Amino acid sequence: xxxxxxxxxxxxxxxxxxxxxxxxxxxxxxxxxxxxxxxxxxxxxxxxxxxxxxxxxxxxxxxxxxxxxxxxxxxxxxxxxxxxxxxxxxxxxxxxxxxxxxxxxxxxxxxxxxxxxxxxxxxxxxxxxxxxxxxxxxxxxxxxxxxxxxxxxxxxxxxxxxxxxxxxxxxxxxxxxxxxxxxxxxxxxxxxxxxxxxxxxxxxxxxxxxxxxxxxxxxxxxxxxxxxxxxxxxxxxxxxxxxxxxxxxxxxxxxxxxxxxxxxxxxxxxxxxxxxxxxxxxxxxxxxxxxxxxxxxxxxxxxx
Length: 304
Description:
By secondary structure, the protein is of the alpha/beta class. Helix content is about 35%, strand content about 20%. The chain has helices at about 1-5, 10-35, 75-90, 100-110, 125-130, 160-165, 195-200, 220-230, 240, 280-290, 290-304, and strands at about 65-70, 95, 115-120, 130-150, 185, 215, 235-240, 250, 265-275. Strands 1, 2, 3, 4, 5, 6, 7, 8 and 9 form a nine-stranded mixed beta sheet that branches. Strand 5 (about 185), helix 7 (about 195-200) and strand 6 (about 215) form a beta-alpha-beta unit. Helix 3 packs across helix 11 (about 290-304). The relative contact order is 0.18.
């Protein structure tokens, strides 16, 4: 009886438990909040995901610093816009972008001829095992399906029809609401990141058709693709690069235009570095992922 009289009131135990809980959260909860997240945030790539490394915007970059950037043509305008803003913020620094393709950029990066490369697809497990690390730069980049303005098709297409066209199972415009003309799919080279991304998100991994009316471009570039469309061609390209073109049209898929947030064909654009990034790469990625860098990227989309 006497021991119960001398015991502290229950409220004391409750307050103590709450205090201990608050201390534990401040120590461990804050550490958990800072854990890196996956850098590959689309296309179901979580099993091969990598920790996301954060890059700080530097206060200064030494004059004479040179950064060589290669890779995807889908990032050509982004590279140029970031180059201008980066060099303006840090006088005496040079960023040298040269677009080729996602695959060629990764080859150049592995060879050490460039410091950083842009890709328009996710890294494979094999590429990640070589020490390649991706940093997302543009989320939800749309891949537009384009036809020439003089194409008679005046409706959109379903995703089912798109798959059938690019696998070669549908080969006449009359089968999808157009004139009685053969369909001429214009394909980008197989080393193109946009080609590989479209095969994944548009064809769901199925193989592209070949032969017959299929045309494969010699190089990964949007301008020759648009020029080749004519009245019977169909192709695919980064929407930002074709949105303001006057000679072609982007068509709705399943009734959804590329401008819509729920447009079905989209992917993430990223930069990739190898191993431990050098100071120039750290500075550029710190700038690119900062609010100022993201504004430069947004401006590049409006200019295209």
